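Hello again, I could really use a second opinion on something today. I owe you a coffee for this, so here goes:
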Amino acid sequence: MGYEEKRRHKRIDLKGYINIYPLAIKGNSNPLKGKFKNISEGGILFECSRKVNIDTILKIEFFLPNNKALAARYKEFTNVIGHKIVILGKVVRLIKKNNENFELGIQFINMYEGDFTNLKRFLELVDKNYVW
C-alpha cells in the first residue's frame, strides 16, 4: 500500500501563508513563518526555513484563502473565506529540500469546533467546485 493510500482525508492543493509556534520553545513568541502547499481535514504540508523535529507539537495559525472573485461566483464561499484557523498539530514528516528549506507534514491533533467546521466546509467547496 503506497503512502497516498494510507491517508484518511483527501488532500487539496492550496497555497497560503502560515505561522507556526513550536510549543517546546519557551519564551519565544516569534512565529516561524512558512508557506503551505496542501491541506486536508487531518493535516497540512508546508515549507519553512527551519528544521522542526518529528513529534514536536505546534500551534498553527493561518487564514483560509480569500478570493473575492470566487466568493462572488460561488456564494457558499462567502461564509468561510478569510477565517483565521488555529490548530494544534504534531510534526509527522520532515524532508530537507535542496534550497535549504524543510518540508513538514503536520497531523492535526486539536482545533476549535468552529475552526474545524469552517476548514471542512472550505475544503468541501474547493473540492466540489474544482477551483482555486
